[in-house]
Design goal:
Helices cover 59% and strands 6% of the residues. It is mainly alpha-helical. It has a three-stranded antiparallel β-sheet with strand order 1-3-2.
């Protein structure tokens, strides 16, 4: 999203990199090292400010929070990151499938509110 977009648009954007590493770690109840580790495991890739500082979006914080839950239960960080990636891919595939089912149902003459 463009930096000169209205503030209200940026605040509503789940992908807007609004949080510094320190604030993100504080919100998650973890350390900046944990955020660096999940970045190294390629679970999330924070955006960088003009000064090179990591910035995180709300979406990335949700992903990081899920990884932290798994790590807190004893899952190694690399495995936790892989699990979260697979969960995210599954959720996206299910969303796409639901869209296809709705479109097919609508194309066959059914209503959008009917069973699908």
């Amino acid at each position: 999203m463009e930096a000169d977009a209205p503030l209200s648009d940026r605040l509503d954007d789940d992908d807007y990199p609004a949080y510094t590493m320190g604030r993100a770690a504080e919100m998650l109840g973890t350390t900046p090292g944990f955020l660096r580790a999940i970045g190294e495991a390629r679970l999330i890739t924070p955006l960088r400010s003009e000064g090179g500082h990591r910035r995180y979006s709300r979406y990335q914080l949700r992903i990081a929070a899920r990884a932290r839950e798994l790590v807190d239960r004893g899952t190694p960080i690399e495995a936790a990151c892989r699990i979260v990636i697979l969960e995210d891919q599954l959720e996206e595939a299910q969303r796409i499938n639901a869209e296809y089912r709705r479109a097919a149902h609508k194309a066959s003459g059914g209503s959008e509110t009917g069973p699908g």
